[in-house]
Amino acid sequence: MKIKVLGSAAGGGFPQWNCGCANCDRARRGLSGFRPRTQAQAAVSPSPGSWILLNASPDLRQQLLSDPEFAPAANTRATPVSTVVLTSADVDSVMGLLHLREFQPLRVFATPSVLAILAEDNSLFRCLERSEPPVSWEPLPLDAVVPIGGLSGLTCKAVPLGGEYPDYASVDVRANLASQEAVIGLEFVQHRKRFFFAPSISGQTDSWKHPAEHADVALLDGTFWSDRELIEVRGGGKTAREIGHIPLCGPGGMLEQLPRAGKGRRVLIHLNNTNPALDETSGANRAVRDAGLEVAYDGMEFEI
Ligand SMILES: [Zn+2]
User: Fold this and answer.
1) For residues 145 and 229, what is the distance between their CA atoms, to the nearest angstrom?
2) 18 CA distance to ligand 1 centroid (A)?
3) How far is Cα 304 from Cα 292, in angstroms, rounded to an integer?
4) Cα–ligand 1 centroid distance for 268 (angstroms)
5) Which SS3 state, helix, strand or coil, does residue 170 take?
6) How far is the CA of 11 from the centre of ligand 1 (A)?
7) Whether pLDDT at 9 is above 90
8) Mean pLDDT across the chain
């Protein structure tokens, strides 16, 4: 299978339009070692000419336009994009669905609870149902191997990762949803090759560790370097763990928890603009690399 990173930053991108932190300032000025990044988006291809989008970022339109592999065949509307798989109902994971509303039949997989938020609680997403046939909302049950790539043999398993439902979902709806279905990782398998996609790991459970350790490629939550990162930059706010992201450094952080040995590539995605690992000359970036991890960038590709 082929994997592409179309966007590697957390919500807001890098630089973020309303942020003047040291990182954003340097990225805005084009300094070397501060590569700009669009908002996190990945895609997996189980066979030539067929792509499955992993989440739908707010930058999705530009991300698809900038890569000729996603172009429709000449004089047709035969897009190679047939399917979207969502890991949560977060705005940054679903906003790009609205970029796919041009009367395009699609399959959209998510947990039953995330589907309830999108298809029942938010009338805006009904614009996707105007296509003929309309978008097909398909439930992805937890911990079940689901064939997702047609004849290619690609399967997908939803791994519950803890985390919360987004604030925009109404309180009544949230109260009736299964908490385990809020945020998932996606474990793809094809021809015994494994790809794990987990851009949001709360750290409330260890369920992410086994698939991360055994994947040939794992795209993992690299949102925050330290637990108090946002508080230190903004002078207040929540810790990384309170927002639902395990930090990279510190006690119980990802670098401490991931064993260094392993055959696969482990790559951090969804980096917040405040993360010092975005500075390629920083000690944080060095520590990430010393731990055997890589930092994703827009346009990164893998074939396994
Ligand atoms: Zn910033």
Assistant:
1) 37
2) 8
3) 18
4) 18
5) coil
6) 11
7) yes
8) 95
The C-alpha atoms of residue 90 and residue 11 are separated, in whole angstroms, by 10
Question: What is the pLDDT averaged over residues 222-239?
Answer: 94
Tell me what percent of the chain is helix, strand and coil, each rounded to the nearest 5: 30, 25, 45
| 235 band by pLDDT with thresholds 50, 70 and 90 | confident
Q: How far away, in angstroms, is 225 Cα from ligand 1 center?
A: 14
Model confidence, pTM: 0.97
- Span between the terminal Cα atoms of the chain, in Å: 6
Give the Å distance between the CA of 243 and the centre of ligand 1.
Answer: 17
Give 209's contacts (C-beta < 8 A, 6+ positions apart): 257, 258
CA 275 to centroid of ligand 1, rounded, Å: 9
Question: Can you read off the two tokens belonging to residue 284?
Answer: 């944080």
Cβ neighbours, 10 Å, residue 8: 29
Residue 261 is predicted with a pLDDT of 65
**Cα–Cα distance between 200 and 87 in angstroms, integer?**
8
- For ligand 1, the distance from its centroid to the CA atom of residue 20, given in whole angstroms, is 5
Cβ–Cβ < 8 Å for 85, 186: yes
Give percent above pLDDT 70 in the chain. Answer: 100
Residues in the chain, total = 304
pLDDT digits (tens, 9 = 90+) for 240-291: 999 999 999 999 999 999 977 678 999 999 999 999 999 999 999 999 999 9
d(CA 33, CA 278): 8
